[in-house]
Amino acid sequence: MGAVTERLGISLEEAKAYFRVDSDVEDEVIVGCVDAAKSEADAYLQNPFVDSEGNVLPIPASVKMWVLKRAHHHYVQRVGGVSNEAVSGIGSVAYGDAFAELRPYRKKVVQFV
């Protein structure tokens, strides 16, 4: 597991408030969306969030906001493989680079073959 998955605390209540969900019916789904978003952040960032001496650094607030936004995206967009969505009479929505906000925290991993 990565630093975001292990150390970023997002309670169910916090996620539900962000998602604007009042019922308890989909609590398990919401927890799954948050866990998936944390895993995606770790996979992309490859950042242990420790300094050169191994001291733990805090997970930046902007990473937490990205995780909440990404988790909400998973919650709302439950159909896999959709890159565009249009509703007749309303318009359309397209999602850009989902990882752009995380880019400043990404560690470059060099693999030698």
Structure overview:
The protein has 113 residues and is mainly α. The protein has a single domain, classed as Orthogonal Bundle (Hypothetical protein yqbg), CATH 1.10.3230.30. It contains four helices and two strands. The chain has helices spanning 3-7, 12-19, 27-45, 61-76, and strands at residues 84-87, 91-94. It has a two-stranded antiparallel sheet with strand order 1-2. The protein is elongated and about 45 Å long.
Topology (elements, then pairings):
Blueprint lengths: L2 H5 L4 H8 L7 H19 L15 H16 L7 E4 L3 E4 L19
Antiparallel strand pairs: 1-2
Helix pairs in contact: 3-4
Quick description:
With 113 residues, the protein is mainly alpha-helical. The chain is 42% helix and 7% strand. The longest helix has 19 residues.
Throw out a few tags for this protein.
113 residues; two-stranded antiparallel ribbon; mainly alpha; 42% helix; Hypothetical protein yqbg
Task: Walk across the major sheet and give the strand order.
Answer: 1-2
- Level of helix content? 40-55%
Class based on secondary structure composition and strand pairing:
mainly alpha
- Secondary-structure element sequence? HHHHEE
Could you say which overall geometry the principal axes of the C-alpha atoms support? elongated
Under the CATH scheme, the architecture is Orthogonal Bundle
Query: What number is the mean pLDDT?
Result: 85
User: How much strand?
Assistant: 5-15%
The fold-level CATH name is Hypothetical protein yqbg
* Terminal-residue CA separation: 24 Å
Q: What is the number of independent domains? A: 1
**Which class in CATH terms?**
Mainly Alpha
User: Could you describe the largest sheet, including whether it forms a barrel?
Assistant: 2 strands, antiparallel
Helix segment tally: 4
> What is the count of β-strands?
2
CATH superfamily caption: Phage gp6-like head-tail connector protein
Q: Cα-atom Rg, whole angstroms?
A: 16 Å
